[in-house]
Design brief:
Number of helices: 11
Number of strands: 5
Oligomer: single chain
Largest sheet: 5 strands, mixed
Shape: globular
CATH topology of the largest domain: Nucleotidyltransferase, domain 5
Radius of gyration: 19 Å
Order of helices and strands: EEEHHHEHHEHHHHHH
Mean pLDDT: 93
Structural class: alpha/beta
Distance between the termini: 34 Å
Low-confidence stretches: none
Length: about 250
């Protein structure tokens, strides 16, 4: 395995079933000899046959129609080729990686660790207004991004290309081990996302409000409230946290 390559993955799907992938896109990010991370030449996209018709609701998001994927290979026949490239990877990455991980199981990915660029953006750029892939794109305007290559949005390669620019800048700001650690935890939200305290920084709300949010059903809200309670020297609740990612910001 090489420690110098991370493969950014983006999937488009026909539904929520375990094999419902209809397109996969990827863009590699490489570490150069001078210690700087940059986008590599290895990139691409492949259609995947989801084994069932794509619903009109889903077509309206990514505009992939049944005739595009009719002759494409099934997910289980193509996943290994992309997720386990020759030479290996230090990690796989995606924006809100929990979605991709539903389909890119450890058996298909070879057990590679994952970097979630959404979770890392929350840590590195908490001052930003929003943390969706496209909002990060236009708030940050990453250097070197070719605007047209990142279009259309909601297609596998353009979205992977955009995410790779975020990842490149993250890796040049923080160590890969740090990104992996943040990615293994729930999201640390910079502001309260809902309720009477919506929009406030966690440091600006009362202990009582924090205790309330520490029991929220959203794992990211709970984790963030508990983190702030610990910072204040409090003791958060001991209720187990769900692994599901929370709200979009």
């Amino acid at each position: 395995m090489t420690a110098s390559r991370i493969r950014v993955i983006d999937l488009e799907t026909a539904g929520n079933g375990p094999y419902d992938v209809c397109e996969i896109g990827w863009q590699d990010v490489m570490l150069a000899d001078d210690g700087v991370w940059s986008l590599a030449d290895e990139r691409g996209a492949l259609f995947v046959n989801p084994g069932r018709p794509i619903s009109p609701e889903t077509m309206a998001i990514h505009h992939i129609i049944d005739e595009y994927v009719a002759d494409a290979p099934l997910w289980k026949l193509i996943a290994l080729e992309v997720l386990q490239p020759q030479g290996g990877v230090a990690a796989l990455a995606a924006h809100r990686a929990a979605f991709e991980q539903r389909y890119c199981t450890p058996r298909l990915s070879g057990g590679a660790p994952w970097i979630c660029t959404w979770k890392c953006a929350l840590r590195l750029w908490p001052h930003l207004q929003s943390f969706s892939n496209q909002m990060l794109r236009y708030q940050r305007m990453p250097v070197g991004m070719v605007h047209e290559v990142g279009l259309p949005a909601h297609r596998a390669f353009p979205d992977a290309y955009v995410t790779a620019h975020h990842l490149r800048d993250m890796l040049n700001q923080a160590a890969i081990d740090q990104l992996l650690e943040w990615s293994s935890q729930p999201g640390l939200l910079p502001r309260v996302p809902a309720g009477s305290e919506r929009g406030k920084g966690w440091q600006d709300i009362s202990d009582q409000a924090l205790e309330h949010y520490s029991k929220d059903r959203d794992v990211d809200v709970r984790f963030t409230a508990e983190t702030e309670l610990r910072r204040r020297g409090g003791v958060p609740s001991e209720e187990p946290m769900s692994p599901v990612q929370g709200r979009l910001l």
